[in-house]
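Worked example 3 (structure in, sequence out).
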């Protein structure tokens, strides 16, 4: 009497990442628009408080913050 053996196939479906780790990355146009908006906010804040700086510094700071937001 022969014995039948059954084998199961492993699933190849990947599990979804937790919501905290999933961040949709923006396209370039949306990214630049968001950086521009943030840089303007930084400029306005700087103008109100009288902190010395310049537009380039505001832009780089905004870019850094947006990159951190999207984990780029």
């Amino acid at each position: 009497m022969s014995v039948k053996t059954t084998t199961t196939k492993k699933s190849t479906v990947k599990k979804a990442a937790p919501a905290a780790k999933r961040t949709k990355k923006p396209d370039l146009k949306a990214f630049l628009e968001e950086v521009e908006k943030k840089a303007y906010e930084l400029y306005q804040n700087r103008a109100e408080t009288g902190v010395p700086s310049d537009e380039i510094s505001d832009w780089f700071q905004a870019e850094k913050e947006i990159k951190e937001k999207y984990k780029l």
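Notes: Residues 28-69 form one domain. The chain has two helices and no strands.
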